[in-house]
Amino acid sequence: MKRAIVGCLAFFCLIANAISAETAEITQSDSVTLLLQNASGRSATSLNGQWTYIIDPYENGYYNHRYEPHANGYFKNAKMSSPSELLEYNFETADKISVPGDWNTQKDHLYLYEGTVWYNKNFTFSKRSDQRYFLYFGAVNYKAIVDVNGQKVGEHEGGFTSFNFDVTAFLKSGDNFVTVKVDNRRERDQVPTVNTDWWNYGGITRSVSIVSVPQAYLADYQIQLSPNNNQTIEGKVVVAGALTQSSEVTVTIAELGVKETIKLNNQANATFAINARPKLWSPESPVLYDVEISYNGETIRDRIGFRSIKTNGENIELNGKSIFLKGISIHEESPLTSGRAWSEEDARTLLQWAKELGCNFVRLAHYPHNEHMLRMADEMGLLVWSEIPVYWTVLFNNNAVYKKAEQQLAEMIHRDINRASIVMWSMANETPSSDARLTFITNLINHARELDNTRLITAAMDTHSTTKNGILIDDPLANAVDVIGINSYCGWYVSEASKCSDLRWESKYQKPIIMSELGAGALQGLHGATNERWTEEFQESVYLHNLAMVDNISALRGLSPWILKDFRSPRRPLNNIQDFWNRKGLVSEKGIKKKAWYVLRDYYKTK
Fold first, then answer.
1. Measured between alpha carbons, how far is 396 from 441 in angstroms, rounded to an integer?
2. How far is CA 478 from the centre of its chain?
């Protein structure tokens, strides 16, 4: 039975309800909850560049030796008022570090450090009385407490999603400073939890800016193709702040001859449906339109593509046509320098490698990647699987942990709701089957559909049973998703590569399947026999036999082997081979292609 992913605006109902109660005086709690849509498309002052930092493993920046609040805590950025004053820190003479960036690969002594580091940035600012100002962070890993001019403006938990605080009341014209307490310690009740297979990069890992908006401003919008009519563009716009007499929002798409003026309702939002004939976005033709949304003298510009995504039995249909997803998994590891990827150049290089491989699809694992990756995928015509880090053994029976996962899910969807490239939201990766896990992830799925039911829902699973005919997919979570993701490492963690080709897979769910992970490790430049582990020939053999295996899966509609590029992992200490790198990449950390790269490229040429 054909299942259409019909469009709805529940996401904006939730946002509008939160915003409608807002008055001219925003409280601190309000400022934390209202994430600006398309911060990069607004007037902003960048705070990127050199910051000073102080390492604080004992948390002395907040507390004294009696564990009482410190009168001159680091967040005060205090200066000596007399030669006799005792002050045991000084940001002005502290070491410097680049933002955005992780501390692990910038400073040798912080390579394995997990704990608190205080960041400080001094800057001058010209403040206008007719503007509001939001301090916007692309991401901070993992917990951030933010102070402006010595006053706390908010805190955020979660290392891969954007957040902002209204700092209008805290900024002043002239000299200002921002202090951020960054803590990347792993804890059991976090998302992700203590054990992962990627590097726990600490720091302010994405861009920081002060975004200025009018007192009444465009807070949010969603603009997309109607899932029921490819000649209709639907959307909603949400306004926040001290509302003016102006009650109209204008949406302009000049290339389509669209200029629509929409009246706001008494909840300060507006919905619309516009007749248009957009060329549909696809990997072959990634058409993006310049869209302008205007209100109260503010105009936000975005580039948006229009496409539909549905499932039909065991097929995935893009714009009404069945598509095979030729993919690769990617970690947010810089291809150009060391450490966490964050720049537009990083995104272009990583996604260009995927295009050279023959991909039309990428799995961005295992957390929301930086916004450059999604905007670049829009431009380059790459379909995207975007994921939250509900990874391995999070505490599925802990309601507080669920709330953290739900928050990260909402922040991921909110930021990227207008990106045509994203066709799947992924709820989890390799989570062990249990009743608590099923309830936890099913609740996330239901919440995702409330926020955005125009995309497909998936999760990467590894629960299989062995039968006389081969392998049976029997994870109960498969009932809840639209697309079944399967991780399988035949020839690496289980069995021998030569035995993989003849494996038969069975599924009772009548849904499309993506082989979301397969692969093997190899040290680039190490050669030997096909049965000699860590050689390029071993990895090549695993790929050859696994690609023969996936051709036996009748419901297979895509794959995203593990992984594009070698990435750092503290789980991988083998001297002279791994050296704290996961070697499953098709490209080495130096950008050199391995033999398996060409195997997968040639396979995709046949699809």
1. 9
2. 23
Among 385, 399, 377, which Cα is nearest to 429's? 385
Q: Which two tokens stand for residue 473?
A: 């997919």
- Percentages helix, strand, coil for the chain, rounded to the nearest 5? 20, 35, 45
pLDDT of residue 159 exceeding 50: yes
Assess contact for 191 and 405: CB atoms under 8 A. Answer: yes
pLDDT at 32 over 90: no
Residues 60, 584: Cα–Cα separation, whole Å:
41
For residues 449-477, b (16+ Cβ closer than 10 Å) or e, as one string? bebbbbbbbbbbbbbbeeeeebbbbbbeb
Q: In Å, how far from its chain's centre is CA 241?
A: 28
Instruction: Give the pairing of strands 131-137 and 143-148.
Output: unpaired
Q: Peptide bond before 366: cis, by omega within 30 degrees of 0? A: yes
Task: Quote the tokens at residue 33.
Answer: 């909850």
Q: Work out the percent of the chain whose per-residue pLDDT is above 70.
A: 94
pTM score of the predicted model: 0.94
Look at residues 555, 514, 533, 567 and name the one whose alpha carbon lies nearest to residue 328: 514
In this predicted structure, which of 82-86, 230-234, 359-363, 419-423 has the lowest mean pLDDT?
82-86
- CA–CA separation, 1 vs 322, rounded Å? 15
What's the per-residue H, E or C state across 209-273? EEEEEECEEEEEEEEEEECCEEEEEEEEEEEEECCCCCCEEEEEEHHHCEEEEEECCCCCEEEEE
- Per-residue pLDDT, 245: 64
Residue 16 pLDDT class (50, 70, 90 cuts): very low
Report the distance separating Cα 497 and Cα 486, nearest Å. 18
CB-count burial class (<10 Å; 0-12, 13-18, 19+) for 518: buried
Residue of 167, 223, 225 lying closest to 30 (CA atoms): 167
Question: Can you read off the two tokens belonging to residue 496?
Answer: 């021998």
Q: What is the pLDDT of residue 18?
A: 44
How far is it, in rounded angstroms, from Cα 357 to Cα 447?
35
How many CA atoms lie less than 13 Å away from 484 in the CB half-sphere?
A: 28
Instruction: Please provide residue 299's backbone torsions phi and psi, each rounded to the nearest 5 degrees.
Output: -125, 125
Q: Identify the weakest region by mean pLDDT among 42-46, 59-63, 65-69, 326-330.
A: 65-69
Task: With CA atoms as reference, report the closest residue to 147 among 128, 131, 170.
Answer: 170
Q: Quick one: which of 19, 350, 372 has its CA closest to 162?
A: 372
pLDDT of residue 470: 86
pLDDT for residue 13 is more than 70: no
Neighbouring-strand partners of residue 386: 364, 425
Q: Are 53 and 120 within 8 A, CB to CB?
A: yes
Question: Directed axis angle between helix 536-550 and helix 595-605, to 10°?
Answer: 20
**DSSP character at residue 477:** G
Q: What is the pLDDT of residues 189-200, one digit of tens each?
A: 999 999 999 999
Give the lowest-confidence range in 185-199, 319-333, 462-476, 487-501: 462-476
What is the amino acid identity at position 298? E
The answer to whether 448 touches 413, Cβ cutoff 8 Å, is yes
